[in-house]
């Protein structure tokens, strides 16, 4: 069913609807989505790179699936994530601050998390608010936790969310690439490098 | 069974919060000799806890987590209550079950793990309060024992429902008046250790957690017996200092007072015949291991 709903930066409201319930569907293999509209993977890569280059605090949030070297593939992805972060860092102006903040755990942490060094899916807004993050990418976060967290971010912050998903993509992110591999992460880094200097930095 | 399974990706090691780096570097995963003496020397498998200051449950948690023989291949099953406040801080796989269902969940889990990982050791340990074990979950507790499910059930017996403000529990003493049970208990403390024995448990212990070495011993025995033979049950007195009107420093003395020979938590143990044989085998192996280690040490110093 066609929908007029767009997955856009918030703050949407306290309990934003799941994008799926608003008629947003997931991309098929080889595709991606931007704001809920199906696009080619290359278009999404370019747009993601533009978001990083135009953000004040472009940030990557690696989750447990890449933080832990539980198999060789995960270790490769971790390497690619680091490379992407270093590329963003080198490609932005001194007024921008690239960050790499882990989501090591899904357990609610008491008495509180330290928002400077980690993000927790149960209250991701704390890390985003604290560091004034305006564009972020999830990678290596299990689907259920990513969905929960992406919705909270849309509800309470104005952060642009990108999901580099190893499965079928995330409709609750503003931009999602599916079937993520180390190669796709490296391709995104290539896009960042290619667009370096051509995207105006934030005012 | 080794630390190899618990490795942070090299490229992202530096961004991990220090408690995870510590877990990988200094926790005693893969060390079969791990025990309570590691507390203070190695990274514990528990971070901060959110129990009341001085709550004996926090001591019990520390000793138990230090004594699990196989933490990287252990799944703990908890239930609602004060214990469930601690599980989010524990670096061992755990499942929070619906209040009272813990032994049913553990039964399914243990069976699924044996099918999914044949030939591998996977320990399942239930840890729940007395309300969950003896009142609302009694059906599930007993049925798991009748069916001879191979896992350990630990009950943190604080003799009331602490987490909801002090209601009467089956394990409460007769005559006890709690904040939300003003009439006083009219019947005797349920004799669950005896019921456990009659229901088919192969190892049953009733004691307090005042002595860490004792907790280590009973935990290891209970888990080894459950692995090889059948269900085991530990009832540990972890007094709710808040509800009995003690202050933070008084939990230990309360346990010492309650474990005197005439008191209700005097050490009681039941071991079935097959379990006795297994413990004797394990003791003989341990003796051999120690003798071998001594010989090697003598060889090195000669
Ligand atoms: C199905 C269900 N019934 C009731 C409750 C409410 N409840 C929460 S904790 C609790 C008592 C827990 O007592 P106990 O098992 O002895 O644990 P303690 O807090 O004393 O450690 C109860 C009744 C619940 N959470 N779920
Ligand atoms: S209420 Fe009682 S059992 Fe619960 S944490 Fe406090 S002292 Fe411990
Ligand atoms: Mg209780």
Give me a quick take on this structure.
The complex is a heterodimer of chains A (203) and B (302). Chain A is of the alpha/beta class.
Could you characterize what this model shows?
The complex is a heterodimer of chains A (203) and B (302). Chain A is an alpha/beta fold. Helices cover 36% and strands 14% of the residues of chain A. Chain A has helices at 41-54, 64-67, 72-91, 124-131, 143-156, 182-195; strands spanning 31-34, 37-40, 58-62, 99-100, 135-139, 160-164, 175-177. In chain A, α1 (41-54) crosses α6 and α3 packs parallel to α6. In chain A, 47% of the residues are buried. The model of chain A has no long low-confidence stretch (mean pLDDT 96). Chain B is an alpha/beta fold and 302 residues long. In chain B, α2 crosses α7 (212-228) and α4 packs across α5. Chain A binds chain B through residues 62, 66-70, 74-75, 78-79, 81-82, 100-102, 104, 107-111, 114, 117-118, and chain B through 5-12, 15-17, 20, 48, 50, 85, 88-89. Magnesium ion binds at residues 81, 129-131, 158, 160-162, 169 of chain B. Magnesium ion is lined by residues 81, 129-131, 158, 160-162, 169 of chain B.
How many distinct helices of chain A?
Answer: 6
The CATH class of the largest domain in chain B, by name, is Alpha Beta
By CATH, the superfamily of the largest domain in chain B comes out as Thiamin diphosphate (ThDP)-binding fold, Pyr/PP domains
Low-confidence stretches of chain B: none
The CATH architecture of chain A can be given as: 3-Layer(aba) Sandwich
The count of domains of chain A is 1
Bound molecules: thiamine diphosphate, iron/sulfur cluster, magnesium ion
Largest sheet of chain B: 7 strands, mixed
Kindly identify the CATH topology of the largest domain in chain B: Rossmann fold
Q: What is the gyration radius of chain B calculated from CA atoms?
A: 20 Å
Largest inter-chain contact set: A-B, 24 and 17 residues
Low-pLDDT residue intervals, each spanning 5 or more residues of chain A: none
- Radius of gyration of chain A, whole Å: 16 Å
What structural category arises from helix and sheet content of chain A?
alpha/beta
Proportion of residues in β-strands of chain B: 5-15%
Structural class estimated from helices and strands of chain B: alpha/beta
């Amino acid at each position: 069913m066609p929908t007029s709903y767009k997955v856009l930066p918030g703050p949407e409201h306290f309990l934003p609807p799941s994008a799926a319930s608003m008629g947003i569907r997931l991309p098929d293999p080889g595709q991606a989505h931007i704001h809920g509209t199906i696009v080619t993977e290359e278009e999404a890569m370019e747009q993601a790179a533009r978001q990083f280059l135009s953000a004040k605090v472009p940030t990557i949030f690696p989750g447990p699936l890449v933080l832990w070297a539980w198999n060789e593939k995960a270790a490769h992805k971790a390497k690619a994530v680091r490379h992407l972060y270093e590329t963003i860092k080198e490609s932005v102006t001194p007024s921008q601050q690239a960050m790499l903040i882990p989501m090591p755990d899904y357990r609610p942490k008491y008495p509180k998390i330290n928002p400077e060094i980690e993000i927790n899916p149960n209250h991701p807004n704390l890390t985003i608010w604290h560091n004034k993050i305006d564009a972020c990418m999830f990678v290596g976060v299990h689907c259920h936790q990513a969905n929960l967290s992406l919705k909270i971010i849309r509800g309470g912050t104005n952060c642009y969310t990108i999901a580099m998903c190893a499965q079928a993509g995330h409709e609750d992110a503003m931009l999602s690439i599916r079937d993520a591999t180390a190669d796709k992460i490296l391709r995104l880094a290539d896009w960042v490098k290619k667009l370096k200097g051509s995207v105006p930095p934030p005012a | 069974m080794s630390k190899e399974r618990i490795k942070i990706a090299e490229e992202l090691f530096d961004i991990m919060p220090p408690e995870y780096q510590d877990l990988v570097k200094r926790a005693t995963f893969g060390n079969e000799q791990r025990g309570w003496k590691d507390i203070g020397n190695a990274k514990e498998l528990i971070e901060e806890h959110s129990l009341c200051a001085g709550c004996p449950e926090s001591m019990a948690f520390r000793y138990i987590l230090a004594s699990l023989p196989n933490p990287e291949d252990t799944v703990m099953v908890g239930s609602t209550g004060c214990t469930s406040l601690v599980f989010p801080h524990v670096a061992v796989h755990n499942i929070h079950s619906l209040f009272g269902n813990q032994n049913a969940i553990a039964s399914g889990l243990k069976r699924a793990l044996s099918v999914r990982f044949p030939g591998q050791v996977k320990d399942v340990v239930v840890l729940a309060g007395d309300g969950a074990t003896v009142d609302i979950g009694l059906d599930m507790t007993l049925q798991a024992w009748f069916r001879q499910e191979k896992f350990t059930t630990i009950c943190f017996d604080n003799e009331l429902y602490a987490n909801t403000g002090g209601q009467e529990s089956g394990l409460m003493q007769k005559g006890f008046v709690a904040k939300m049970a003003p009439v006083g208990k009219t019947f005797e403390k349920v004799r669950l250790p005896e019921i456990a024995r009659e229901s088919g448990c192969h190892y049953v212990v009733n004691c307090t957690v005042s002595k860490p070495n004792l907790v280590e011993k009973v935990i290891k025995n209970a888990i080894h017996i459950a692995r090889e033979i059948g269900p085991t049950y530990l009832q540990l007195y972890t007094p709710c200092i808040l509800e009995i009107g003690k202050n933070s420093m008084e939990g230990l003395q309360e346990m010492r007072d309650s474990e005197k020979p005439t008191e209700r938590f005097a050490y009681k143990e039941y071991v079935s015949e097959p379990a006795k044989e297994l413990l004797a085998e394990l003791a003989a192996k341990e003796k051999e291991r120690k003798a071998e280690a001594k010989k090697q040490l003598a060889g090195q110093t000669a």
